[in-house]
Amino acid sequence: MSYQETSFVTIGQRLLANPLRVRFHYGHPDVFDRVFHLTRGGISKASKTINLSEDVFAGFNTTLRRGHVTYHEYMQVGKGRDVGLNQISKFEAKVANGNSEQTISRDMYRLGHRFDFFRMLSCYFTTVGFYFNSLISVITIYVFLYGQLYMVLSGLQRALLVEAKLQNIKSLETALASQSFIQLGLLTGLPMIIELGLERGYLNALKDFVLMQLQLAAVFFTFSYGTKSHYYGRTILHGGAKYRPTGRKVVVFHASFTENYRLYSRSHFIKGFELLLLLIVYDLFRRSYESNLAYVLTTYAIWFMSFTWLFAPFLFNPSGFDWGKIVDDWKDWNKWINQQGGIGIQQDKSWQSWWNDEQAHLRHAGLFSRLIEILLSLRFFLYQYGLVYHLDISNQSKNIVVYVLSWVVIAFIFLLMKMLNIGRRFLSANHHLTFRLFKACLFLGVVATIITLSIICHLSVKDLIICCLAFLPTGWGLILVGQVVRPKIEGTGLWHFTRVFARAYDYGMGVVLFAPLASLAWLPIISAFQTRFLFNEAFSRRLQIQPILAGKKKH
């Protein structure tokens, strides 16, 4: 991050000022011509939402009034920057929010109309275009995976590959397996290599670049790419940009699992799980006819991205694999997820308060953005539609009744959860034994139903696995739809059930994320290795890191 900042304030600013002539105002080091600005719109801006990145709007004002923002280098000084992943993510979320507001501002519209063709493109790619392109890249990955899934589930890919083998056409499989080897994480690091080469020589720059890759720079940049695309896209669709204070304090301390989950659940973890599920389903259904090499070449970058989005916050978290911290995190997580929310209860104390706060962008959303949100949620139901016809129990039937029956099964699962919830509310406090008997009866009933279906309708274990893979995303899609139509169902029992269901999903995702961390924490060498690669500079200076990490002892 510090290398990226260095390249941005040096080689980046030089290029923007000359020859592109599209440099604007980028923060505190820039100096205003006060008299010029007081007579041309003033320095302060009117709206804390549209003008969230108010610095850059001063540059827009200057350029629109035929001014020119120059860049003069006379001294390079260090500045207190965000040094922890959580602080960096908050900062990048704020900048992405600001860029989405710039995209729909009249200032950007006027600049686009008044610039010549080359300055217009320069302005686009150095401001909102970078964020728009990152959003398009992520959307393209989704389109690619859902398209591949359609081809596999419909049998189209099999037919194409079989026909290609019969005709001895090699180019088709090559085309299906083609993908750029140069990843976004490496491309993002290119400007900093040039700047380091200019200042310290290209051999030193190459050494630093290799060291950065060993310190998982590609993981960091891929993760931050997800942050930019999520907050840019959400703000474009619903608005709700806000200032996010980062603190900029010394962050050599352990961030709890709960804090990481709150920060990254909706921006990274959900997307990571969805991509992982799509990759697994695609792998299961293509195995009989497609070579493993073609699959690996096609999907290795998406596997890397999904694992990065799921586990990067824990990888860059000091003492992330310390067993004592893991135990404390688990207790804290259970307390947070079960705590009831309400007026005055902060989101770091209760899951319910956090969940309500996460939907703040939907409260004032218009009809059009709500419809788009519902349309995006329909992908989960289409995914379920594709999978249920591959069940052995369906006997290869293509009748719509199969899909309708899958919804009957989902309704039955909802009913079971509702019964469990009612039982917990009325029986768990004073009638423990009755509640346990009730749960045992429900469990035995479900097992008896599965056994009966396996005998009569030939339900297989493969069917049960496919059902799990099909119905889990459907449940999440229903939760998303419920959140969008919240004003209509808030006063009903349906909303309470949506909340219960959402809590169950969050708890499940938390457990799936926590399990590998706890497993790795059993091995002491993992914690030592992580501390070493996070604080390599400190170790080379023989600084004592462990006492700092330990912090104040709890009395």
UniProtKB/TrEMBL annotation:
Keyword terms: Membrane, Transmembrane, Transmembrane helix
Spans traversing the lipid bilayer: 123-145, 210-227, 292-316, 367-388, 400-417, 437-457, 464-485, 505-526
Higher taxonomy: Eukaryota, Viridiplantae, Streptophyta, Embryophyta, Tracheophyta
Keyword Transmembrane in record: yes
Keyword Transferase carried by entry: no
GO cellular component: 1,3-beta-D-glucan synthase complex; membrane
Gene Ontology molecular-function annotations: 1,3-beta-D-glucan synthase activity
Domain Glycosyl transferase span(s) in chain numbering: 1-456
Protein name: Transferase, transferring glycosyl groups
InterPro entries the UniProt entry points to: Glyco_trans_48_dom
A Pfam family this chain is assigned to: Glucan_synthase
GO terms of biological process kind: (1->3)-beta-D-glucan biosynthetic process
Signal peptide, first to last residue: none
